[in-house]
Amino acid sequence: MSGISPTPRTISLALAGSAPFAAAFLWPQLAWVGWSVLGLLALAFLWDAVQGRRTPLTASRSLPDPLYQAEPAFYPLTVTNPSGRPVSLTVREVLGRELTDAPLDRELVVPAGAQATVKLRALPTVRGDITVQAPVVRLTGPLGLAFHTRTLGEVGSARVFPRMRQPEDAELLLQQLITRPVGTIRERFKGVSQEIHGLRNYLPGDPMRHLDWKATARLQRPVTREYTLAQNQQVVILLDAGRSMAAHTDGASQFDHALSSALALLRVAVTQGDEVTLLIYDQDIRSVVKIDRRSRGFQALFARLYDIQPSDTEAHHALAAQWVLRHCKRRSLVVCLSAAADMGSADRLSLALKTLAGRHVPLWVNLTDPDLSEVAGSMATSTVQAYAKLAAMEITDANQAAWTRLRGSGVHIHSTDARQLTLGLLRHYVQLKGSRL
After folding, report:
1. From CA 183, how far away is CA 192, in angstroms rounded?
2. Share of the chain above pLDDT 70, in %
């Protein structure tokens, strides 16, 4: 990209230089004065433009690698000026809609033979490999008459990983489950396993049923049993990558939200000593990742999954269930993250989960469509709105009926929107981990 344009100073001088033409009606000889002034201005403009074009500049940016979806990242952009004069310029960072909601413009003065740095902010909105255009600068010539616009550098790329940070409540629970040693988690969730971690002095508020009476009698003071979550269990996460997960909520697809929550659950489960399998599927099995405490970090896991996008085909839920039955012989917690976009897909997913209920503990986490709930609860003011409300209510009622039948078959159901997904998922994991496996 390259181009030359006049500055406001040039336009002002051109208007002033045109004044003799107005008086040329009375004194024709003044027209030559106007033409002379404009001619000199044109020559000065061209000289200024050439000098601006000849000014050597380079630019470099240091985008973090990787970036994380929906998480702001700050990075430096440095412009180097090896010429013998200071340069005033405007830097436009064209990251694209994938990395920012608007071009980033900064005014900058780069001293002669030196460099200047500006700090910019990127906010990725999508995952995957993103093409990043080179920055554009518009510098002013020595006389301040011409703008010269040019592109500095080459087209680059950036990797955007799934979102790491969760909404506030979910992040607090996530960090507690990850950072605190197993056995020191004192949150009182219904259904936690009764695996004893150790004994400690009684604290006000401890349940009476946790008192260890033998230790209390022996030590002559109240002693409480401290429980931990059961370890060495197996968790299977089935992540639907079909077309129902391509719908967008809060600026990201349902699949984006589900992938971020699935990775959060995976981190927690591995920290708690479980073996975890993450399976992503649509019409086919697209990715299978197995990880446990012996695995080295999660960066490699993110690198394998960050560019997977939902497809435009219907998910084959029965295929995923068959994979679980064939490869998971131990009784496992099977978490299925999906979105029932219609009654047909809900029925197919229900049948697939029922086949797992005999051997495993299935949990269906259904991502609801906020628009569908809004339409179902809205007040219809026209015939079209009445039909839309009726259709939304039929889908909602059918889903409720399907979930009631599934619960009777041993399938656990959790229906939530994207904003509460991670928090509800982690709570269900803690509740089901010991009481059901």
Report:
1. 12
2. 80
pLDDT tens-digit map of 47-106: 888 888 888 888 888 888 889 998 899 999 899 999 888 888 888 887 878 888 777 888
pLDDT digits (tens, 9 = 90+) for 270-287: 888 888 999 999 999 999
Bridge partners for 157 per DSSP: 131
Type and span of the H or E element at 68:
strand 67-68
Using the 8-state DSSP alphabet, how is residue 72 labeled?
Answer: -
Query: What is the CATH topology of the domain spanning 234-435?
Result: Rossmann fold (3.40.50)
**Which has the closest alpha carbon to 324: 240, 237, 435, 433?**
237
Q: Report the C-alpha gap between 233 and 220 in whole angstroms.
A: 37
13 falls in which pLDDT band (50, 70, 90)?
Answer: confident
**Please, what sign has the CA dihedral across residues 250, 253, 257, 258?**
positive
pLDDT tens digit sequence for 183-216: 444 444 443 344 555 677 887 766 677 788 888 8
In terms of phi and psi (left: phi > 0; alpha: psi -120 to 50; beta: otherwise), the region of 113 is: left
Q: Which candidate, 402, 422, 426, places its Cα nearest to that of 413? A: 402
Tell me the domain boundaries of the chain.
1-161, 234-435
Three-state DSSP state, 431: helix
* Element spanning 62, H or E: none
Contact predicate 65/158, CB 8 Å:
yes
Q: Provide the token pair at 9.
A: 């100073």
Record: fold of 1-161? Immunoglobulin-like (2.60.40)
Rounded distance between C-alpha atoms, residue 52 and residue 7, angstroms: 12
Closest CA to 60 of 13, 118, 5, 104: 118
Rg of the chain over CA atoms, in angstroms?
32
∠ CA 80-86-87, nearest 5°, is 70
Closest C-alpha to 68, from 310, 306, 301: 306
Report the alpha-carbon distance of residue 180 to residue 53 in Å, rounded.
60
- pTM recorded for the entire structure: 0.74
DSSP letter assigned to residue 211: B
Q: Specify the residue for token string 């009375």.
A: 26
Backbone angles phi, psi at 212, to 5 degrees: -95, 105
Helix (H) or strand (E) holding 371: helix 370-376
